[in-house]
């Protein structure tokens, strides 16, 4: 049996300003994974694993840890934005909206807000996206801007992807 390798992701030239990517996967959070995330990251704030405590400070129950929401939304965007390769350069303007609770499903979309050739790395460009995560009611749960290096098409043809 012969398999054909399919290159995934987009290159610098594909990131036109204002292009929108509706990332096709969504993710439904569970209480168990939030607990595992809290434990494995040593995030022992009772707000995220004690329903009674969460209610005492104004929540309906223990919410999903916001950093897990961030990591998940970032992961949902990788296939479209950075899977073709390119180092992560930074994140800014991170804002949380509606609280995410176990049982909520989050989806993500990203808009290209800036793109320019790299002055210091020939064959590469710098791309910035604004990514928004929304819940099943289309309410914003997270928004941030991130920047990556992105290979230019000519560079990608010369170097195989990892």
CATH superfamily of the domain at 12-29 and 65-158: Hotdog Thioesterase
- Enter the CATH topology name of the domain at 12-29 and 65-158: Thiol Ester Dehydrase, Chain A
Total DSSP helices: 4
- Annotation, overall tally of beta strands: 5
Provide the structure class. Answer: alpha+beta
Low-confidence residue ranges: none
Radius of gyration: 18 Å
* CATH second-level architecture of the domain at 12-29 and 65-158: Roll
Strand order of the largest sheet: 1-3-4-5-2
Q: How do the helices and strands follow one another from N- to C-terminus?
A: EHHHEEEEH
Output the CATH class name of the domain at 12-29 and 65-158: Alpha Beta
What is the general shape?
elongated
Strand content: 25-35%
Mean pLDDT: 91
What is the share of helical residues?
Answer: 10-25%
Task: Tell me what you see in this structure.
With 162 residues, the protein is α+β, with helices and mostly antiparallel strands. The protein has a domain of 112 residues: Hotdog Thioesterase (Thiol Ester Dehydrase, Chain A, Roll), CATH 3.10.129. Helices cover 23% and strands 33% of the residues. The chain contains four helices and five strands; from the N terminus they run βαααββββα. Strands 1-3-4-5-2 form a five-stranded antiparallel sheet. The longest helix is centred in the middle third of the chain and has 16 residues. The chain is elongated and about 55 Å long. The model has no long low-confidence stretch (mean pLDDT 91).
